[in-house]
Amino acid sequence: MFIEQRISILEDYLNKLHKEGVFPGAVFSLIDSESCYINYLGKAQLVPEEILADENTIYDLASLTKVVATTTAIMMLIERGHFTLDTYVTELLPDYENPAITIRHLLTHTSGHDADIDCSGMDKAQLIKAVYDSKIDPDRFNKRVLYSDIGYILLGFIIDRVTGSFEEFVTENLFKPLDMEETFFNPKDDYKERCAATEICAMRKKLIKGLVHDEKCYLLGGVSGHAGLFSTAKDLTNFVRMLLNKGEYNGKIILNSQTIDIMTRCYTDNMGAERGLGWIVMGENNRFCDLASEHSIYHTGFTGTSMLVDLKAKKGFILLTNRVHPSRENIKLIGIRRNINNVAFSAIR
Q1: Which of 29, 63, 157, 337 has a 20 to 30 Å separation from 297 between CA atoms?
Q2: pTM score over 0.85
């Protein structure tokens, strides 16, 4: 149930942030166990022409890809017996050179891999080789959390290797059963005009719209474990409902309820940040909402997206923005995400 007066406060707050230049526009969804409330504000594009956002605007999810597509697919494959959390990555990817790293290390960002790879001047083959050749830091391995795109690129490679196609697997086994009809990699031409614009990209020398913003994912063909997914608030609401309903959606079992419990517990005590499998979990270092229970999970995306799910209170909040339009130099959103989450969760009874 939603509190009408508090929804008005949330909308006023988001409009205030929009006017202050925190983001050009936004679409959001408030979710409880039975219903949702979706609304929108501002612009999906500022230059070279202004285009208003609406509830059907398609956003580049950036790193929400990690939890919506990649983590979910990995857990599905574990349920189907293809590997375990403690399977060594080298058993699945023979070209990978770090024998101690397991699936669990990649999911929890405890592999010791660097956060990123500078792909400037690389082509696809060179980037793939750089990922496989990437070394680990023994001082971080299994001791410290360091959020790593490299780890999730590898997870995407694993899903590809096991299923034959990461993209086809999540489309057939996740998006279609969840009625996520407008969730995909590489939007087709028919959808591109509905996409929120992101950055005027220095590498590609043009405004990015309907094309993945992340440069590494772009070099990999638009499909990767760490980024590349596009979606709408409506589609993501179905995904959150599945999580709130212990893995079930409209009578279809997407994940076993115990899988969700395992996925959302903390695996990184005393490692500098609390992490579940893929998800950020509530803890001393992660206070992403003051009004959420300890059994809450969260993730963000570089382009200005976020998803907060309270599995105990049966609440969810999705915020989709294109804060990197027209430039990633706009970082105003990053410091106030917790404030926004507080206002949003106060609107759900």
Answers
A1: 157
A2: yes
